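Deviations from the work plan: none for this task. Representative record:
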Amino acid sequence: MFATAQYESGDWDSAPMVPANVIDAIARYTSIPVRPQGVSVPLSSEVIYGYPLLFLTGHLPVRFTNKEAEVLREYLRRGGMLFVDDHNHDVDGAFNKTVREEIRRVAGPLVPLPNSHELYRSYFVFENGPPTTSHEMNGWGDNLVHEQLDAVLFASRIAVLFSTKDYSSEWSYHPDNKRFLSVDNTKFAVNIVVYALTR
Amino acid sequence: MHRPIETIGRLVGVGVLVLALMLSLRSPTADVSRAPRALSNDAVADSTGRGAALELSRVLLDRGQRDGARGADATDSIGQSVHLTLQRIPSAALRATLAAASLAGLPLDWTDSTAARGLAVSATAAADPQGGTIARARAQNTQPLVLRDAASTLDSVADASRGLAVSGARLSARIEARQGRSRAAVDVPAQALLRRLLLFARPGWEAKFVTAALEERGWKVDGRLLIGRNAFVTTGMPSGADTTRYAAVIVLDSGVVPAEPLSRFVRQGGGVVLGGDALRDAALRTLHPASPDGERPMVPGALLTDAPRRGLDAWELRPQRNAVVLVQESHGTHADPTVVVRRIASGRVLASAYRETWRWRMEGPVDGLEAHGAWWSALVSAVAFVPQRDTRVLRNDRPDSARGIPSVARFDSAIAAGARAAQRSPYPGDAAPYADLVARLGAPVALPTVRPTPATSPTVWWRASWLWFVVAAVALVTEWTSRRVRGAA
Amino acid sequence: MTGLPFGAAPGPERVPHVPAPHVSAPHVSAPHEPAPNEREGRAAMRPADTVALALVSRVQQLLRRVAYARAALIGVAAACAVAVALLLAARQWPDVRALSTPLRAFVALVAGMAIAAAQSRGARHITLLRTALFIEEQTPAGFALVTLVEQTAPINGGDAPNDATQLGVRSRQRLGEAFLDAVGGSVSAEDHAQAAARTLSRDRLRDPAAFGLLAIALLVWLIVVPLTTARTTDGTVPSSTPPDDTQASRRTAPIGAWKVRIEPPAYSGLPIQELGNADDVHALTGSRLIVLGVGALPSAVDVRASIDASLPMLPAVGAAAGGAGTSLTTPTAALTATADGWRATLTVAVMPTELRLSRGGATRLLLLDGYGDSIPRVALRVPERDSVLRRATGRLSLQAAIHDDLGLSGASFELIVSSGEGERFTARTVRVAATRYTGARDVTLRAALDLDSMQLGPGDIVHVRAVARDANPASARESGVSETRALRVARPAEYDSVSVEPAPPPEVDKSLLSQRMLLMLTEKLERRRPRISRDVLQSESRSLARDQARLRLAVGDAVFQRLSGESSAEHAHTVGDGHDHGVESVGGKLAMPGGVSATGMIEEGDDSPVIGINKPLLEAYNAMWDAGRALELSDTRGAIPHMRVALAAIERARAASRLYLRGKPPVVILDLDKIRLAGKDTGSTNVRSLRTAIPPRARAREARLLSAALLALTDAGAARDSVAVMRLESLADAPEFANALGEVVERLRTGGDGTDAFVRARRVLGGVSRAPDAAWSRVGPP
């Protein structure tokens, strides 16, 4: 279904439980066929073409190698979608600054995604745009609540979705603990997957 | 004083020579006695028929004047009938005129001295949203055959008996088949009227990328993917399979569509594409052009080769008896069919053995995206329902500039004029002129046994302009030689 | 016939040798030493014949000068005429226009000289005999002079005199006297001859002089008034039309020749280019393009971008290739009137652009193919790879190779130093070895990094890359960057593993950072404890206990995974479960037989490496168990020491571990059947937006190509313009097709038959393919 992108620089595996949690959410709310465990693929390898949805996160500065940039550019051209989340939840953080530069180099500049975008209605309805994370509310990182996500659009299709809301922290727990939550905070992940799978 | 006179003399000599040459090369069409040669004018070049009708009038007048006793070299009166020896196929209008004369009571027969043997050409609109034309030509001999449109040669084969088919993204105005001196021509038809597609599949990358590929190629796709409990993601406005709304139905998984409505759709004339696991759907067995015998394993790494489809998982297909194999994979001595089609009533059903074709787009070679789209569009085109349209009403005769194609300043008016000129419709019989000729004048007859001898030819010596040319040339050469001789002396 | 001296002789005729006169004859000189037989004749000659012969000789010289003058005049006139013809032709045909001015002048000069040389050949035929005939024609003397000249020298071209025609000295003298008597004496003869020669020269030189003057005047006029009388509608040069009519015709005349000048941006250092009457321009983006024309202002000016908007990556491409003025908006052209005509200026954009100028009902195109100023290419040579430093001391060499197409303005090494771990990271950016350049294209940037001064601590990571800027002053100009190398300073706890490939934190680190976070949260709760209610304390403490339990299980998983290779977190590990894990579960804690102290701490000993690695993890596991139990009881104070023990143990475990499991996150395998559609919420039915069709570029191009092919039959110029525009648009995405179109343009430009080129372009485009001959009414897939 989707894969976590391994890149050379930085800590790509800073949120190791996110894939399992997203898979759990997909299985829990949809009939979309999924595999029972997540997959990690190196960004520099053409293997990523086999996973049309990629998740990329980290804390540290991100510098794509030339090979990574080349593969990712082709991946997006062919119809792949990249979901990037800033694990620092800090717009001034090293990850945010560097990964934005790299995305611009590979796919073009990020633009704010309006909260009326069909991404927020693709399965569950999020009237106010991207759901807020507890890390935002608790004042971690840049101490801001980010109202919008950013995206690079190819012919009105989201090619790169960029979040500074730290879903990596929000979703990085064992799926078994989901039963302790009054509201499942991974439902937005379902929207992202359904969007990638149908659009 | 010699020199100017000599110069003038030479100029006069050269002038006479040129005049003689022109006379000798002058077209003989104006010559009444040579009307049969005019009758065999190039069919395509003379499509207006005005000249041909005139020629027929002249034939008739000449016939009246000569009272049946004399004839041109190939025209004769046998009793009260007119006999034509045709060295080429007459133009469409002349064929019509001859047929009209025949129907009006003039007995006409003809002897076949043409080289043409049943040359025929056809053009049909491709069932493709991006337009396109399929042109086919065939002749009943083994001579070379050339297919061309107004702009250039399209293709040619050395042996016409095997036919020649060309698929053109955009062919200009008129398509012409040529073989020797024979011509056959048809108009490029208007673009096919295409309806929407209906997709049945489970959510997954295959459904996503097949829909995307078809939409990118200009098809309009309706579909409904069951995502969760009573929750769908719909594309377009899907409704029941019916040819009033849909050109084709695509089924990618088993158990996603009931058989009965699909069968009804096919009987209406609709097209069905079965791909992937739909071939295993027992409920659709009556529609299957081929049954899956087993799994054909993918060849690892083949996705990046020149034959990327070998890198896809596929079924081994066993075609039904009345099915046609469109695509097959050759493996040394044998070939495995991978795309099979069959007709059911007035509809068409196609089975594609490949599974997870989205990998071709994502994991294939650099052109995988385009090739995957072209592949799926072609699969649908092979079976899509195309309603008949009234070309007189729906014919799109707008010039290119009106379709949003950019052009430069002097471009527009010229193209509009060119488009109008190019859209003069050829006579319907031009698609198979020989057959048309036979249909209108009857089968050719053998050469009449009584023929005027060449000695009685009405050609008089002073009409032989080539003689003038020879005389003038000899005179000039003699004059020049004499000067040289004098100079030498 | 007065023209006799200049008439062409049928063959070469030898000039007779003239004996030296006895009297002073300054105009006559013997060209060489006379032959012996001539000497004999000269000794016997009398004054009368000598005088006559001298007269003939002088007249001959005069006539020859007239002939040479005439040839020179004709030559000059012809050269001017050729130059005028070239100037006029240049306005009509671009091929001629392409010739440079010196070349055109050279052609005219050569033509003039050739004609003059051909004309001067006639002077050789002015022999003494013909001169004598000329004189006798003016003053008849019974051919005495002709006979005298004829008999004085050989006339047959042989070396020896013709004895058969030689008379005696006496006879020659008599002939001379007879001539002088006939003309009335030597003086009179001289006068007559000179007057006749002057008349002749006037007649012969008048016409060439007039022709030459006319040609020179025309040439001067064309040069002095170069373009003000450019082509009118019919291409002729207006001469005597009234001023009002000229103005009107200029307003309505199509735009003729223009001059194109490219002024590259100042930073590039490139020279100004004068392109003359160009139809297409390949120029650096940001250059100033100036088009100078004559006549009235064009009635319309239009600038269009020749790009296909359907190219999906265009914004990125444009940004990458950008330079000064690299905005993707179509530039606008400024049109101004000048004293001589008009001037259009615009800035060359990054995308292919057409400048269309219209006047008199016709449009002329100028195609601009702007090429971007590429950003510098930077390669980091040293360090060659990522590495781990044991101690951040000493000097580290840095080296980068940098290249730019126009010139560099500066370069430096950029270091991003990130410190911290877990949830706390800081980063600072440092630039070193910043160097300025003034236009260098290839440089090697070197630096030695003083690690001591950077005050790097254990665990810090330095990301090094080289950054270079070129001289492009655009504000959004990108810098060229190299790949990034990461240098990590090892933590003391991992000194024994610094030789391994550096890696992001291994899986145990995840437990570490979470343990650190839990410890922090517990300490925070402990500080808040006096101010919060018991219920709140219990609630938050239990929440922490659950997280602590989760971490403990994760550590347990790691232990079992190492020991048994199993990875399931859901695998139940109990004593006597049939698995030999080398550990036992004793009252919730894990223990290795014989290795656990009474305090629960695991003693260090001479264990196997596997046990050595796992001992600290077991210790951490047990400490977590204790901490969790304390937290369950809301005893935050009691939990903190256990949590610290657990944290320290995890540190030790990582230090002991030689297995850096880079990129292998904890494996969680979900039981999908169990959770499938178990969620209480359900999604809604949604309509997916349609994907837009990709414009069929190839088909649109095919249509345009066919239209152009048909248009070429009637208007080759318009067809050429159309194909040229299409070529410009295709350069970016279909270079092969653009090349084929280039051939078409060239063929149409030179007036040749473009059919073959059209067919080739069509085949390259691939719009036509042979369909398989199958028994199916439709064409199947390819």
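The radius of gyration of chain B is 32 Å.
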